[in-house]
Amino acid sequence: MDEERARRVVETLRARNVFAHVKLPHAGITQYGLRVVLPDGREAIWDTDGTAGLEAQIMRNGVLVGFVPSIPGSENFGEAEVIEAIACADYDQPIGRSRPAAASPAPAVPPRGPAAPPRGPASRPLGLAERLRRAFRD
């Protein structure tokens, strides 16, 4: 998207309490993108790869941790539809999706077994250094 459109979208997203910024283009690319800062420290980088569709990469500390795949039909979205898609995206899945409209039925989910008990500090996942230490200690 061009710079003026990116700035208008960011301004409207901020009015909707979405912490958004204009993402400057990379060298040689004239397309601007948007960066949405998520409450848990991740960032969603929208539309910076030069493709026509609207999609996002979800990053944490510079590492890709998820993405929102290209939204079907988004190459023809106006500003209002782009704003709605970004504001309503579900960023909490490894592969994020646009949240379904309220009228669409939820997909059937098979029942799960009992929930695992909460893990305390003693049962936290081990880091690489601790796993190596334990592997070579034996």
Report the structural category: alpha+beta
Mean pLDDT: 77
Q: What oligomeric state best describes the polypeptide chains here?
A: single chain
Assess the beta-strand content as a share of residues. 15-25%
- The percent of residues in helical segments reads 10-25%
The radius of gyration computed from the alpha-carbon positions, rounded to a whole number of angstroms, is: 19 Å
What is the overall shape? elongated
Strand order of the largest sheet: 1-2-3-4-5
Describe the structure in your own words.
The protein is an alpha+beta fold and 138 residues long. The protein has a domain at 3-98. The protein has 3 helices and 7 strands; from the N terminus they run H-E-E-E-E-E-H-E-E-H. It has helices at residues 3-15, 79-88, 128-137; strands at residues 20-23, 33-37, 43-46, 56-60, 63-68, 89-90, 97-98. The strands form 2 sheets. A 5-stranded antiparallel β-sheet has the order 1-2-3-4-5. The chain has a two-stranded antiparallel sheet with strand order 6-7. Helix 1 crosses helix 2. It is elongated and about 60 Å long.
Gist of the model:
Helices cover 24% and strands 20% of the residues. The protein has 138 residues and is α+β, with helices and mostly antiparallel strands.
